[in-house]
Every structure is written in structure tokens, then in C-alpha cells.
């Protein structure tokens, strides 16, 4: 046998051995796939079978899908839902209890029953739009008040704080009245309406503001008495602590005139409003200057008038003895 024939027989022998080995491996893998144990039916997952002949497959997206595997028989998929954790549900803080509606007889009616809608209040037949003046100072005396609006009649009257006042009818849009000083003697708002005496026609309500009048910013701290009753009052400013001396008729603060001076109080009159203010004497000491200190009350002695001569002056017995005898 030549060398060439020996080489060919060696190659053929190797091919035969490789074919037998591959066939045996294929038979072994098929037998392993059929003889392998069946997975647990209660388990929710399946173990994949690793074979060389299988192509990679994607995981099914839902339990209803069936895996297409020619070597593995289809198996039912059983999914076990997880047990609840048992967390206690607390009280809802956004829930509130609505009491049942009660009927006129006193019993409760079902929550689904419709309650009657409230009846809207009709608008007043008369209209009161504005007042002139809208505000006044207290203790300023009587004044004229004008009311403006619509649908006024000659029978309508202006009512302030429940007091019906004599009213002048000017037009269907304007009324006027004279407010007495007693209605504005103290500060505070006053209700104003327009109505007829029988109450059938009435208007809405407006407020008349009665403000406190301006007060003098002074304190009465001393008095200097004069010989001819020309007393001098010592006043001190409340803010800058300035001390001034005034007499009757003087004007202080630009608008307050001194009208009366006594040991107990000083009376000031507002020159613009005519309101009188009383400054009572305060027990304090004030320095009116480096050269003079004013005591709380300092009054000079007034001249005492001489006694009137009596009709029969008293006689003295000693004087009568010393008198010379009268001559006839």
C-alpha cells in the first residue's frame, strides 16, 4: 500500500468517528429532554431548558400566551395572588358628619329631601343714594341735612336714629331737613333712612358719621391772679411741653379763644365750630422760665374796700371827760 492511500484511509476513519459522536450526542440530548423531571405545578415560574438546537425565545408578556416549544409540552400557568398586608385603615380626616335636616314638626327628614330655597328679599321701593354732609362734628349745634336718591314723594320723611324729622320736599331726587343739636350731641354713627309715615314706602339705610370735635392740645397747670381781676392762666402744650400765659380773649392753637378763667378750669371756645372745651386744673408744677417758677395757684391779694362809716359812732367815756365844755 502506498503512502497516499494510507493518508486517505486515516481521514475517512476520523470522519466516521466524528459522525458517530455527533449522532450519539443528539440521541443523548433528546433522551434528556424527555426523561427530565416535570416542574412543580404550584410554582409560578418555569425553568428554561438549555438545548443547543433551540433558538432563543422572548419571555411571554402575559400568562395567557403559550410558549411555542416543540420539545416541551405546554403546561398551565398558575399565578398566586399575594396576601394582603393587613394594614389597618385609619379615619378619613376629610370626611365630616352632616346632621340630618329637620322638618317643621321637629322630626328628621331624609338627607336626599330637597329643602325649600330661601325667598329673596325684594329691593326697597325708594332709593337713598347719598347724604350732604356725610359727616359732622359732635356738639356743633343744628345743621341742614340733604338726602339724594330717587322716587321720593312729598309724603316721605327723613328719619335719623329712629327720629322722624320735618322734611322739605325739593324734588323726586332730593329732600332736606334741619337736624337738631340734640341728635349730634355725642359722637358715633347714626342710621338715616327715608320713608313715609305709614311705612309702606321706605329706602335703604345710610350712615351719618358724627365725629368727635378737635380738642385743644393744652393742660391747665397754674393761675396768676391780678389786682383788677385780670387773671392769667398758665397752659402747657402736651407735645412740645411749651408753657404759655394767656388771658381772657386770647387765641391759642390758632383756633381756640379763652372765654373764661377760674381757679378750677379754663374755658376755650373753638372759633371755627363754636364748640366749648373745658380744661380742668391739674395738680402739677411747671417751670415757666428760669426767672420765675409758677406755683399751682398763685393769686395776689386784692385791695380790701374801706369800711363804711356808721351813723352813730361809738362814744368813749374818757374822751367825753377830756372834751372842753360847749359854749352856748
Descriptive account of the structure:
- With 328 residues, the chain is an alpha+beta fold.
- Helix content is 12%, strand content 27%.
- The chain has two helices and 17 strands.
- A hairpin with a 2-residue loop joins strand 4 (157-160) and strand 5 (163-165).
- The longest helix is centred in the N-terminal third of the chain and has 33 residues, at 3-35.
- The protein is elongated.
- The relative contact order is 0.08.
- The model is unreliable at 41-45, 286-307 and 310-328 (pLDDT under 50).
Q: Main attributes?
A:
single chain, 328 residues, alpha+beta, Immunoglobulin-like, SH3 type barrels, five-stranded mixed sheet, four-stranded antiparallel sheet, 2 helices, 17 strands, 12% helix, 27% strand, elongated, disordered C terminus
H-E order: HEEEEEEEEEEEEEEEEEH
Kindly report how far apart the N and C termini lie.
Answer: 230 Å
The CATH topology of the domain at 127-211 is given as Immunoglobulin-like
- Average pLDDT, rounded to a whole number, is 75
Tell me the strand order in the biggest sheet. Answer: 2-9-8-4-5
Shape: elongated
Number of helical segments?
2
CATH superfamily of the domain at 127-211: Immunoglobulins
CATH architecture of the domain at 127-211: Sandwich
- Extract low-pLDDT stretches: 41-45, 286-307, 310-328
Work out the number of β strands. 17
Q: What amount of the residues lies in strands?
A: 25-35%
CATH top level of the domain at 127-211 is: Mainly Beta
Class by alpha and beta content:
alpha+beta
Helix content: 10-25%
Oligomer: single chain
> What is the gyration radius calculated from CA atoms?
60 Å
Instruction: Tell me about the largest β-sheet.
Output: 5 strands, mixed
